[in-house]
């Protein structure tokens, strides 16, 4: 903007600036803590005196309380879930009394299930983002969000951080860059999240708790999970800036090439279980070897561990997380394909990433950790319902996802490709051959 | 498996059009205001033009109207990440002009300060290099340790970055016994942490694959481009000013100089990681036999007017061989002060090394040379 | 290979070269007479094992620095009259031989046998033209550009002798003693 | 062939060791300070914002000469006969150019020091005028700034006292 001409400066009398009163945050001893002994903040002294710190004890107590509460509610809800059939027939009769045709009741029941799955994805969005920020904080000996929630200090670890962030993102301005192709830019987030939600249909949240009991559940999931890469490339191209174009192209190459090891690594599981249906796979893992070791596929001597490792690595790559996050590598491409997004569109990308992490951990739990089954045949474990075991295993796997992200550096683009084509795939095929030998000699179907 | 791209991209059958990308001056991993104009084809870089001068404050011109004591304050602002060697090098040059000999206690204190500051500076390098390659956690651990050193410096000379502690003829203030006890406590705490960084970063397979074969600088090239410090020693050239021309009594302490083999990014990183261990050894030896006596030489005037003449002094700063050429015409301010900045020479090699590399390797090479723009632009 | 017999060898090849009167610390300081002796001497030193051109600088000996070369805009001070700045003036010190000459200095380091030779050259200030050493040492590239940018020394044969540190709109070479700052858009 | 498997074993061992360290630190308490609620008190020798006492100053100009960037300006007071006396008429420090290097405090000959560093690291300048702090006969140690609009000396709005002013060093 051009400098104001001299006469214009003199002519316009400066309006009296409003009295700006700066809030003076004077902190004296009353309303805050002054740390006089600076050396008390040194890490070694804090680590040595950890049990004397009130915050540390309070945190440990809260963790134990949460685990106990989950166990109790799980046991309480255990009984309700067995009455799934009565609930369906109750709605059936209630509908019939109003003259609804059986077909419409079926539609209502399916609508209920769809809403339930959608709820799982949204609640997961809230929960896992907060959980990742807390875990990454504590890994890095800092604290993570603590002030969100009730203002007067009863805000246990900032529980309300993610809803408030969601609200903020809702209210944020949704900028479409001038150089962008407007339609493709707006459509990209939709194409990214839709397949993810659809892919959740056959996922079983416990024994007989799948929204749609499809016979080809596994194939269905991988088919839809593959579509969202189109949305990523659209986002990359449509943002009109070079960095996101690079990010989008890298994402395309990475996700497509990691589909293969992801698919091939579970072929041994399908061979052992004999069907693609997730519930059947989960049921094939019931029973215990020598009474103690559960018959989970992960415990099959060599085949299980290799398949589990490859599937875990491929799932981490599928969700664009470190060490495979070259599409949104902060240090190179600023933030890859979703640089030019803001507000709700950006949060949809974020939501999809965590939905895929949840999908990956549910699949890991179902295929390798016997979704819904109890790890030990003794009394206290059997009382807990199957969906709580499924949830516990999924959260354990999600923790592994987060743990990997905050430990390992990032692979380079071509190393990432070499890794999958020259290392993971050959090992997948070797694993399938080994599984074939198992079937031939050991596991007489 | 060497990651270096051998075939020149231009003769590849697929003719893609070239893209011009501005890396910087605001970019998460350029460690300051540096702009590199990259012409890329797909992922391979065709031409790279580093552009410096964004942080040029004209310290050499400013020095011509400032007294000698004032220039020490100026020297804090060159390599703002490790300011003690800057103060030291200016004081050494000025003391040569004035003919003042600092007492032995001041020399020992200067060695302790420079080595502690070297650890802090290498910690910052370790953290930011981890982030450049995607590992976020080592950054937080490195800064947690660096915070302890900054507390020590705040307790001693009152500032966390711009110390103004080493003065003409000695040091500003003596070291209290509590300070040395806290420094010993830090040294004990820091040793196991270094082993943790080795497992977290140095011997991590992904980190090694990202840095082992990348940015190879041969010994001849390194000397030709006048690199210095860990960048030179990473290529296997044994040139450390503390051993070549010992100053401030460095010949009394025994420490060895880590050398790399191939001059790759990993070797430069490895040299800095090992240097931190050597600095710990020097600090322990220096604290063990801290000589008694005055900490400031007598006879340094409030406004010194050295006789006409020239002096050249250079020290092993954290980033390399930092030299000061000081010419005086007998007046109250230096007639000419030239700062031979190691980062200025270390950055120059980028314009030749970057062609043919991938984008993520640019960040790896730039990070491994560990430049600070305050020192490049002066 | 002490300094003296090195100097003897140099003396044998170039009789015009003589030991500098004021040596810099205890390094061998050699003063050459004319710019065209520089490149052969540099390549001779390189063969002698001085393979690193460590530093390359120059000093303008015209006189005390011209105060109008500094941008002086103090914040408004109610007590001082309009624009008055606390006075710092550069004074010429008696007895120093000010002369309109530019004293250039190259420092060669031998990494192997820990030795350093400083080569000096004194030329008239106006239109300083010196052969560039980028052919022999790559480190000369940016240092020569910096000297050109700050002191206006022309290096013949330099691949791209352009400004490197000062902003593009700055006219003149700041480190010359008679540099006067020309008001640009950033001086309000 | 053996080399192939040993590299896999070595790499996975290194990766797992890295994970073990992050897990170890996850169960250790945090070392961070939550700034607005908990504030670190700087050390006794910390170089915070400068304070000045017009009563003890003997206006000897030593601090003016000691300052590298010429931030300080002062004027000797005159008694009725117009002769300069060892009191200060006015004193000003330009915080826009001050680089907190303590040279002025070391140069001050008075006991206790008339210009000294406080421990206040939360100095905010709301307006450009506020950067030049002025002191007169009985101004507070923190000094006032001259508001050009109102042509009066006002108290600095941005001076945040971390705690009571730190006792002067002699």
Summarize the structure in short:
Chain C has 188 residues and is of the alpha/beta class. Chain C is built from 3 helices and 7 strands.
What is the radius of gyration of chain C computed over CA atoms, rounded to a whole number of angstroms? 20 Å
Strand content of chain A: under 5%
Which term fits the overall shape of chain C? Answer: elongated
CATH third-tier fold name of chain C: Beta Polymerase, domain 2
How many β-strand runs of chain C?
A: 7
- Residue share in helix of chain C: 10-25%
Q: What is the distance, rounded to the nearest whole angstrom, between the alpha carbons of the first and last residues of chain C?
A: 59 Å
The total domain count of chain C is 1
Outline the structure in words.
Chain A is mainly alpha-helical. Chain A has a domain at 163-441. Chain A contains 17 helices and three strands. A two-stranded antiparallel sheet of chain A has the order 2-3. The longest helix of chain A is centred in the first third of the chain and has 38 residues, at 102-139. Chain A is globular, with a radius of gyration of 27 Å. Chain B is α+β, with helices and mostly antiparallel strands and 378 residues long. Chain B has one domain (59-377): Orthogonal Bundle (Cytochrome-c3 Hydrogenase, chain B), CATH 1.10.645. Chain B contains 15 helices and eight strands. By secondary structure, chain C is α/β, with parallel strands linked by helices. Chain C has a single domain, classed as NADH:ubiquinone oxidoreductase Nqo5 subunit (Beta Polymerase, domain 2), CATH 3.30.460. In chain C, the strands form two sheets. In chain C, strands 1-2-5-4-3 form a five-stranded mixed β-sheet. Chain C has a two-stranded parallel sheet with strand order 6-7. The longest helix of chain C is centred in the C-terminal third of the chain and has 12 residues, at 140-151. The relative contact order of chain C is 0.19. In chain D, the strands form two sheets. In chain D, strands 3-4-6-7-8 form a five-stranded antiparallel β-sheet, with no helix packed on it. Chain D has a two-stranded antiparallel sheet with strand order 2-5. Chain D is elongated. Chain D folds into two domains: 1-31; 50-154, Alpha-Beta Plaits, CATH 3.30.70. The mean pLDDT of chain D is 85. Classes of the chains: A mainly alpha (445), B alpha+beta (378), C alpha/beta (188), D alpha+beta (170). Chains in contact: A-B, A-D, B-C, B-D, C-D. The interface between B and C is large, with 46 and 47 residues. Strand 1 of chain A pairs parallel with strand 1 (38-40) of chain D.
């Amino acid at each position: 903007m051009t400098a104001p001409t001299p006469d214009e400066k003199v002519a316009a009398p400066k309006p009296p600036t409003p009295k700006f009163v700066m809030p003076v945050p004077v902190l004296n001893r009353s309303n805050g803590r002054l740390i006089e002994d600076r050396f008390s903040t040194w890490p070694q002294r804090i680590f040595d005196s950890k049990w004397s710190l009130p915050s540390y004890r309070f945190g440990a107590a809260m963790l134990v309380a949460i685990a106990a509460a989950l166990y109790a509610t799980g046991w309480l809800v255990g009984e309700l879930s067995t009455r799934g059939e009565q609930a369906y027939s109750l709605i059936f009769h209630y509908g019939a009394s109003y003259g609804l045709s059986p077909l419409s009741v079926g539609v209502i029941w399916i609508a209920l299930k769809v809403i339930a799955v959608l709820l799982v994805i949204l609640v997961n969005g809230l929960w896992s983002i907060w959980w990742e920020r807390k875990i990454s904080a504590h890994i890095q000996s800092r604290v993570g969000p603590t002030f969100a929630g009730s203002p007067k200090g009863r805000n246990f670890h900032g529980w309300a951080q993610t809803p408030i962030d969601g609200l903020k993102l809702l209210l944020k301005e949704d900028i479409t860059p001038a150089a962008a192709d407007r339609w493709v830019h707006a459509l990209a987030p939709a194409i990214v999240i839709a397949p993810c939600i659809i892919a959740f249909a056959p996922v079983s949240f416990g024994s007989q708790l799948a929204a749609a009991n499809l016979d080809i559940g596994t194939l269905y999931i991988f088919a839809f999970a593959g579509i969202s890469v189109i949305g990523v490339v659209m986002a990359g191209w449509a943002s009109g800036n070079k960095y996101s174009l690079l990010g989008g192209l890298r994402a395309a190459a990475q996700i497509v090439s990691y589909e293969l090891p992801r698919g091939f690594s579970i072929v041994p599981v399908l061979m052992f279980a004999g069907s693609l249906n997730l519930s059947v796979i989960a049921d094939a893992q019931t029973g215990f070897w020598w009474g103690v070791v559960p018959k989970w596929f992960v415990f099959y001597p060599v085949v299980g561990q290799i398949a589990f490792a490859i599937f875990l690595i491929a799932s981490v790559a599928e969700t664009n997380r470190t060490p495979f996050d070259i599409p949104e590598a902060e240090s190179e491409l600023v933030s890859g394909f979703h640089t030019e997004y803001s507000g709700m569109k950006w949060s949809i990308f974020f939501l999809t990433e965590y939905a895929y992490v949840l999908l990956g951990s549910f699949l890991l739990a179902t295929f390798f950790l016997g979704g819904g089954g109890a790890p030990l045949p003794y009394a206290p474990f059997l009382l807990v319902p199957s969906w709580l075991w499924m949830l516990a295993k999924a959260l354990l796997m999600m923790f592994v996802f987060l743990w990997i992200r905050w430990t390992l550096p990032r692979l380079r683009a071509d190393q990432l490709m070499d890794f999958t084509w020259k290392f993971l795939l050959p090992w997948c095929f070797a694993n399938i051959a080994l599984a074939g030998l198992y079937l031939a000699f050991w596991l007489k179907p | 498996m060497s990651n270096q791209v051998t075939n020149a991209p231009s003769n590849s059958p697929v003719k893609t059009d070239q893209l011009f990308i501005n890396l910087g001056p605001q970019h998460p991993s350029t460690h300051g205001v540096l702009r590199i104009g990259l012409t890329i084809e797909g992922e391979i870089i065709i031409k790279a033009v580093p552009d410096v001068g964004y942080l040029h404050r004209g310290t050499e011109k400013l020095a011509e109207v400032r007294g000698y004591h004032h220039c020490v304050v100026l020297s804090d602002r060159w390599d703002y990440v490790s300011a003690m060697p800057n103060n030291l090098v200016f004081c050494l040059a000025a003391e040569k002009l004035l003919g003042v000999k600092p007492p032995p206690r001041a020399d020992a204190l200067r060695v302790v300060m420079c080595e502690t500051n070297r650890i802090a500076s290498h910690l910052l390098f370790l953290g930011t290099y981890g982030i450049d390659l995607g590992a976020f956690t080592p950054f937080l651990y490195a800064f947690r340790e660096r915070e302890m050193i900054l507390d020590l410096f705040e307790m001693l000379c009152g500032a966390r970055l711009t110390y103004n502690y080493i003065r003409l003829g000695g040091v500003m203030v003596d070291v209290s016994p509590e300070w040395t006890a806290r420094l010993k406590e830090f040294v004990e705490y820091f040793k196991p942490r270094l082993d943790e960084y080795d497992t977290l970063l140095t011997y991590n397979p992904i980190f090694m694959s990202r840095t082992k074969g990348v940015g190879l600088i041969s010994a001849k090239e390194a000397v030709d481009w006048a690199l210095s410090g860990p960048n030179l020693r990473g290529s296997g050239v044994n040139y450390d000013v503390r051993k070549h021309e010992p100053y401030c009594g460095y010949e009394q302490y025994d420490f060895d100089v880590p050398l790399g083999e191939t001059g790759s990014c990993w070797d430069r990183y490895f040299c800095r990681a090992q240097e931190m261990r050597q600095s710990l050894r020097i600090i322990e030896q220096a604290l063990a036999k801290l000589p008694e006596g005055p900490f400031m030489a007598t006879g340094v005037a409030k406004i010194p007017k050295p006789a006409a003449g020239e002096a050249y002094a250079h020290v092993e700063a954290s980033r390399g061989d930092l030299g000061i050429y000081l010419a005086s015409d007998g007046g109250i301010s230096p007639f000419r002060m030239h700062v031979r900045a190691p980062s200025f020479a270390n950055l120059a090699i980028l314009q030749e090394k970057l062609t043919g590399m991938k984008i993520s390797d640019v960040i790896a090479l730039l990070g491994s040379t560990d430049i600070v723009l305050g020192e490049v632009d002066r | 290979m002490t300094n003296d017999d090195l100097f003897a060898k140099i003396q044998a090849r170039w009789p015009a070269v003589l030991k500098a009167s004021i040596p810099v610390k205890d390094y061998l300081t050699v003063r050459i007479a004319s710019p065209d002796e520089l490149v052969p001497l540099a390549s001779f030193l390189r063969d002698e094992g001085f393979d690193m051109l460590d530093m390359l600088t120059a000093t303008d000996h015209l006189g005390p620095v011209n105060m109008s070369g500094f941008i002086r805009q103090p914040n408004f001070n109610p007590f001082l009259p309009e624009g008055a700045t606390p006075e710092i003036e550069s004074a010429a010190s008696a007895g120093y031989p000010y002369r309109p000459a530019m004293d250039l200095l190259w420092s060669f380091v031998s990494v192997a046998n820990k030795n350093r030779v400083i080569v000096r050259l004194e030329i008239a200030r106006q239109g300083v033209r010196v052969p560039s050493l980028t052919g022999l040492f790559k480190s000369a590239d940016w240092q020569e550009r910096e000297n050109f940018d700050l002191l206006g020394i022309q290096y013949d044969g330099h691949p791209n002798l352009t400004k490197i540190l000062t902003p593009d709109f700055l006219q003149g070479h700041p480190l010359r003693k008679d540099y006067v700052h020309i008001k640009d858009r950033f001086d309000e | 062939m053996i080399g192939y498997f040993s590299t896999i074993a070595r790499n996975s061992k290194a990766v797992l060791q890295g994970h073990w360290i992050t897990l170890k630190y996850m169960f250790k308490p945090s070392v961070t300070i939550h700034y607005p609620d908990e504030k670190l008190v700087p050390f006794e020798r910390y170089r915070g914002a400068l304070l000045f006492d017009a009563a003890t100053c003997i206006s000897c100009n030593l601090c003016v000469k000691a300052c590298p960037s010429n931030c300080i300006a002062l004027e000797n007071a005159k008694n009725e006969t117009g002769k300069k006396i060892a009191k200060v008429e006015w004193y000003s420090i330009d915080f826009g150019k001050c680089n907190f290097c303590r040279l002025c405090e070391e140069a001050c000959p008075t006991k206790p020091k008339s210009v000294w560093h406080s421990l206040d690291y939360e100095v905010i300048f709301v307006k450009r005028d506020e950067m030049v702090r002025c002191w007169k006969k009985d101004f507070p140690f923190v000094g006032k700034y001259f508001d050009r609009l109102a042509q009066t000396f006002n108290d600095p709005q941005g001076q945040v006292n971390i705690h009571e002013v730190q006792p002067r060093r002699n």
